[in-house]
Hints:
Layout: E1 4-9, H1 16-29, E2 34-38, H2 44-54, H3 63-87, E3 91-95, H4 98-108, H5 113-124, E4 131-136, H6 139-146, H7 159-175, E5 180-184, H8 189-204
The chain binds adenosine-5'-diphosphate (ADP) and thymidine-5'-diphosphate.
Amino acid sequence: MTGRLITFEGIDGSGKSTQIARLQHSLESRGYEVLVVREPGGTPISEQIRELLLHPDSADLHPRTEALLFSAARSQLVHEVIRPALAAGSIVICDRYADSSIAYQGYGRELPLEEIITTQKFATSDLLPDLKVLLDVPVDISSDRKSQEPADRMESAGRAFMARVREGYLQLARTQPEQWLIVTGQTSEEQIAQEIENYVVKIISA
Ligand code: ADP
Ligand code: TYD
């Protein structure tokens, strides 16, 4: 028995956590076993790496070190949690996955894309999602929604950085349309949730 891996991607504040909670609820009420994890994090080791990555004191982190640490946190999560849950037949919903590294470290930090992609294959033992959901919002909406909370190290990277990340995601999703569901994250929470639920139910019952 094998489960399904669904990943949510998008710039900060695009509504991923909100939509993941709704999808979890609707899938569980249909009788599915659902596990939600977030990146970076989800295991004690990955949470320690998260602290190192996002703490404003880590200002000296070199972009390549940053890329390796995100990938290291992911590797631990895949092998300790995601693969066993999939083997047990669960639907695993991941708040960010390998495409976050391609979008943020590849497009955002402008590290060589092919090298970031190869690193993801290594870190995950090439575990690929069954579906990737991109919540697309303009950068201004993202910063308005995040303005109430103190910025972490990544959120302090600036508007031009976040604009490159958004464009990177759109490029990834448009060039691999069979892997992605692109959703406009600016309509109501309810409307977005319905669109995602309809699509996911079709995929997992196929
Ligand atoms: P992310 O996990 O992508 O950072 P969140 O789900 O935490 O995003 O949402 C960021 C903020 O935006 C929260 O305050 C949330 O209530 C709000 N939000 C989420 N979805 C919508 C929406 N469709 N319209 C307006 N505000 C939203
Ligand atoms: P978090 O608060 O979990 O994300 P969000 O703002 O989406 O709720 O912070 C994670 C930050 O790390 C976010 O700015 C995206 C960034 N990130 C990367 O740069 N590369 C990665 O591989 C991952 C997983 C996240």
